[in-house]
Structures are given as structure tokens and as C-alpha cells.
Amino acid sequence: MQWINRIKKVESELWDSEFPFLQKAFLNALEEHGSLNGQSGWLSHYLHLEQQNILLPSFIKQHSYGEYVFDWGWSEAYQNHGLEYYPKMIIAAPFTPVPGPRLIGGATKGKVINGQVISKHLQEHCHEENLSGVHYLFINDQEREALKDHNWHERKSVQFLWNNYQYQDFEHFLSTFKSRKRKAILKERRLIQDSGIQILKLSGQEITDQYWQFFYGCYQSTYAKRGMSGYISLNAFKAMGLAMPDQLLLIIAQHKNQPLACALYFKDEENLYGRFWGCHQEITGLHFELCYYQGIEYCIENNLLHFNPGTQGEHKIARGFEATFCHSLHYLTHTDFHDAVGDFVHEEAKQLSQYKKICYEQLPFNNQNMPEPT
């Protein structure tokens, strides 16, 4: 096994991911424009398992920001016992809480994944490099099934996903709701329509420098409200727009040709991913319009199967987003802490299972159109 510190050093025929957030264009934009490496606390550390012809999007971390599987409590426990939690290693799509494939390479396509060998390499690498552990974040089901029984602890989290049940249009989608829930959404959308706000949809190649500047101001303002700064630089976003234009969608709300708010989406052949939102003016219902309803309409119009609007947010339930489990795998080199984390995630999973059931019961669909529980 070898590791590579820059995505541009990996041969293109080896790194052939179709997942937008692990494409070379996405990672290269982050690396070349200061969002990875340097002082970011993210160190590119791509692992190449030559015998298996597999690459892994791995990073050495000096903090836990931008991961969305929260382990601050674990870090604090280490500190309280005089131990170092950082550096650690993660397998992830940077800054992206979206489940998807993590193994990259021709050997992963249509073949059985040797989870035991991959797990052994990753866990031994942590000991060799004096890392506290490895965290395999937002793993998809295929990889999880292959790896989970090889000295990992599985952790669950809950996201809200919209599924396209062959809807003809947004009206058809709403027709599956209970009457009261349907009327609430119609009222919410009417507020935006009656205010004279226009909606503009731009693909990557249509996003001008002026629109990128507006988006970036909105993006940073969202983080500033929480006393933080956004992780991704303006030039990184611009580079993505140039390198992967067909997979970006910027939706802008404007009034009298003046932009008010925007939402940036990514997409692939089956999925739409809502990633970033921000506004220069707070308007009732505008967040729901740009981040949920416009996304749903786009999926229906373009026959996309699923819409992941981003992490957290119970208000999504009333708008037809179903609670679903996300999964991560964790290995800590310190045996006692590894066992303690196993106990923690086991108890946490019980609570999340109950929470997911409650979310299902709150879905807005009528009896004839209630989806099957998952």
C-alpha cells in the first residue's frame, strides 16, 4: 500500500469515481484553491491498495470540522485522559455529508469487495502512522456490508431524503398529501409567488463571475450567523463550475432583477444534492422554496430518483422528506476507547431507531400514498 498527497498525482484512469464529491475535478478544486492541505487541518492522504487496484479518499485530520459525524465528545474524552485524539484519519468526501461510494477503482465495479483486506490495511496504517484511529464516513450499503464485521464499530445517524415515486409534476406530488398538509405548502409557496420574486436556474456554465460573487457572499453569511467561516474558497467553487459544469445547479431568487438569496446544488444521473444556501434578505418561506420545493420540481422535471437536501432539519418531514439512516464505521487504536465507542454507538442506535419511527409517523402523506417504512 502506498499513499499519495495530491489528487493530481493519481492517474486519471485509476481515479474514475462517478460520485460528484469524489471526482478529480471536485478534489482538485479544493486542493488547488486552499480548501484542503495548507492550514486547513485537512491533509490529503489518498491510499492506493495496489494488489486490489483500489484507491481510497483518505485524509489526515487535525480537527473534526467539516465531517458531520460528530465526535467532539470522543476527542474531549481523550483529552481528559491525557491522550491525543488528533491526528486521526477519515475516509470521506470532504465537507460533504452525503452517503455514497468511497472505494475507487476498476476492481470495485461489479465485484465482491474484500472487506477483511481493506480493513486490515487501514487499521494497520493507523498504528504505523501514530494516528488515533480511522473513521469511514457516510459509507454506502455495499461497502458497509463488506467491512463492518472486521473490527469496526458501526454508527448511525439520520438524514431526510426525498424519493421520486414517479410523480408527473409538483401538483401530483402534493396530491399524495393529507389535505391540511397540502394546503400549508400551497400557502407557503403562494407567499413567494405573490411577492413578485422570480426564480432563476443556472447550470455550471451559466454561472457568471457576478453570480459566483453573490453566491459566495450568501454562503459565507450562513456560516457567519454561527460565528464561523465557510470551508470552501470562492476560487474553488469557480473551478468546480468550470471543470464539472453539468453537475452544478445554482438557483437564485431575485426581485426586480436584484438577487436576494440562492441555493447551490450538485447532481448526477439519479440524484440531486442540496449543498449550500444563503440570503441577503430574510423573507418568510424563501428558504423552503429554494432549498426544497425548487429541488423537488427539478427532480420531477428531470426524472431524478432521489433528492438529498443536506443534513439535519426535522422541518423537512412535513414537506415529504423521509427519515433514513446514514452509516459510518469507526476504529480506534486504543483498545479501551475502541470498546467504549462500541458501547456508545450501540446505545445511540437504539435511540435513533425510535426517533426514526417517530419521524415516519409524522410524514404528510395520506393513507393511500404512505411509503413503506424502511
Short description:
With 374 residues, this protein is an alpha+beta fold. It has helices at 24-32, 72-80, 115-128, 141-147, 170-174, 179-194, 209-224, 234-243, 286-301, 335-361; strands at 2-4, 42-44, 46-49, 54-56, 58-61, 88-91, 133-136, 153-163, 198-203, 248-255, 258-267, 271-279, 306-308, 322-332.
Structure description:
The chain is of the alpha+beta class and 374 residues long. It contains 10 helices and 14 strands. Helix 9 (286-301) links the parallel strand 12 (271-279) and strand 13 (306-308). The chain has 2 domains: 2-158 and 325-361, Aminopeptidase, CATH 3.40.630; 165-304, 3-Layer(aba) Sandwich (Aminopeptidase), CATH 3.40.630.30. The protein starts with a strand and ends in a 13-residue tail after the last helix. The longest helix is centred in the C-terminal third of the chain and has 27 residues, at 335-361. The chain has helices spanning 24-32, 72-80, 115-128, 141-147, 170-174, 179-194, 209-224, 234-243, 286-301, 335-361, and strands at residues 2-4, 42-44, 46-49, 54-56, 58-61, 88-91, 133-136, 153-163, 198-203, 248-255, 258-267, 271-279, 306-308, 322-332.
What number is the mean pLDDT? 95
Biggest sheet record: 11 strands, mixed
Give me the count of strands: 14
The protein's oligomeric status is: single chain
CATH class descriptor name of the largest domain:
Alpha Beta
Q: Which structural class fits the helix and strand makeup? A: alpha+beta
Following the backbone from N to C, one meets helices and strands in this order, namely: EHEEEEHEHEHEHHEHHEEEHEEH
What's the Cα radius of gyration? 21 Å
The CATH architecture of the largest domain can be given as 3-Layer(aba) Sandwich
CATH topology of the largest domain: Aminopeptidase
Number of helices: 10
- Considering DSSP H and I runs of 4 or more, what fraction of the residues is helical? 25-40%
